[in-house]
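We emphasize that the prediction below concerns an isolated chain of 113 residues; any contacts that depend on oligomerization or on bound cofactors are therefore not represented. The input was used exactly as deposited, without trimming of termini.
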Amino acid sequence: MAVVEKETVGRALVVKLSGELDLVTSDSVKEAIDPVLEGSSRITDLVIDLTQVRFIDSSGLGMLLGRYKKVSDRGGKVIVFGLQPAVERVLAMAGITKIVEVAASRDAALAHY
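Result of the prediction step, given as a token string:
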């Protein structure tokens, strides 16, 4: 898993991920995201591009939930987009799609920033 790109758009941190989000990669994703979230009171939301993510396991789900908690504790929200069918099924079965916003595209995810 690689964090391919990070950028700030308005009050959102936008992160593009690639590969698999699993036990092996979840910590490196956290290490890429958390310092940015914790280092700026201006960033309240997290937008995650999952277009290139083809697999997610329980560790990946835990990473998403942990970032959701960090962001929601600050009054922000998490938006994901670009869900591949297999990833979308796992997120739906785990109930993640009920707590994070799922956008149809990057443009839709960033429309209000």
